[in-house]
Amino acid sequence: xxxxxxxxxxxxxxxxxxxxxxxxxxxxxxxxxxxxxxxxxxxxxxxxxxxxxxxxxxxxxxxxxxxxxxxxxxxxxxxxxxxxxxxxxxxxxxxxxxxxxxxxxxxxxxxxxxxxxxxxxxxxxxxxxxxxxxxxxxxxxxxxxxxxxxxxxxxxxxxxxxxxxxxxxxxxxxxxxxxxxxxxxxxxxxxxxxxxxxxxxxxxxxxxxxxxxxxxxxxxxxxxxxxxxxxxxxxxxxxxxxxxxxxxxxxxxxxxxxxxxxxxxxxxxxxxxxxxxxxxxxxxxxxxxxxxxxxxxxxxxxxxxxxxxxxxxxxxxxxxxxxxxxxxxxxxxxxxxxxxxxxxxxxxxxxxxxxxxxxxxxxxxxxxxxxxxxxxxxxxxxxxxxxxxxxxxxxxxxxxxxxxxxxxxxxxxxxxxxxxxxxxxxxxxxxxxxxxxxxxxxxxxxxxxxxxxxxxxxxxxxxxxxxxxxxxxxxxxxxxxxxxxxxxxxxxxxxxxxxxxxxxxxxxxxxxxxxxxxxxxxxxxxxxxxxxxxxxxxxxxxxxxxxxxxxxxxxxxxxxxxxxxxxxxxxxxxxx
Length: 576
Description:
alpha/beta, Alpha-D-Glucose-1,6-Bisphosphate, Chain A, domain 3, 4 domains, seven-stranded antiparallel sheet, six-stranded mixed sheet, 22 strands, phosphoglucomutase (alpha-D-glucose-1,6-bisphosphate-dependent)
């Protein structure tokens, strides 16, 4: 009997195993491949926590794997001292199946370790959980969400005391402690009644949401705008997620009275039944919103992902047609709008700073620098932006103007330390209202920025290497690129940035210099003119993400440059 089969039998023998999990295990009896998939490996605790398919098994999201991760988090906090234990952990959850159960499991496991848990009484956006950690003075936070993944997934994100997702050192420590816990059925946990009686389980007060929304509105609302907000017609969809109430309340409090809801997508729905994917990056996700906006003649369509940390939009162009904008385009528009606002309001306080990731378009960087605003790049992932905000706040050097990434995540106020779909929706509405009051659409502004700063273009391409040898082929392709840097006809390679080696190489001279960002398996190839291509693997899946950024002198040149880069790197990634 294999190790996986032994674990499978152990689970079946548990007297208190929930009936749905038991029935699931009975259905796979004798199916060796399925048993191996569920029990042959543990669900991995990565830098973002856990994320996986829900179901029975050690390699699935269920109350036992959640309990195991939480026990490891409890040990991690205990090792930090009595103060961390006393301050406790804030816990939030989204609309996905089992999210309330998993959130309560976290709370009752922490309580068994003597750690106070603050549990959200209702579904909440991820940024609201980040706000709660900071506002309640907690030592950590846990958000139960799988963001925009398909309905069968759920996840477990861990936050530090500053309200940002944990970084590598904390993740490694929690993972190491988790690996020492072999028997998931022996992990202690209290009943809800016991935890409440001992004062170890407390509901996050309902007033916290009101405080979060009030703070968002105070921080984001543009004092230059007077009565123009009522003239902006908005269509909004939460895509069945947590954004419905917070975003609507923020818009209403800011003065937006002409907001129309996509009624089919308002109610929470863990199946996300009206979309193929609840991901605002996907064109199809906003299709119902676009249709309603066409019927109503609305100016702006906005949609959040299920945990409301990202927002996608569609806006009218000069001809009246609704046009979807990319995360890079919206980020550049936000940077431009906030730079002008900062200038118009007198530029008070600490010098402003803009954060972007190394795979985000350079357009926002060029705009910010033209206004004298400092720009700092981070690795992919908003946790790095959150960490840099905290560090600059501590040493008093800069204050946040904007942080953004290409995957539709924006932050304009450091009241949270993660991307914020409530802030994002409000700043986009403010930006649209401001420009509308001056007779401009966001598409007009974007075209003007292209004409001023260059025709920036960007693209994200996923390369999936199917088959049993997919992971090996992916590793070979990445290694081949390290040995033989990318070549693109007609473009001179200026530098190669290898974040695994933490080294920048200049092929023409052979010179090298160190990279200061943390280790990450990312390679970036920079060509003359500022065009670039980057590639990174997607965990253990046989899939790679390729990012491209160009700056053309015209729309046609931009498209041609993008096509060249995409064809060249795609061929190398597939080992053609």
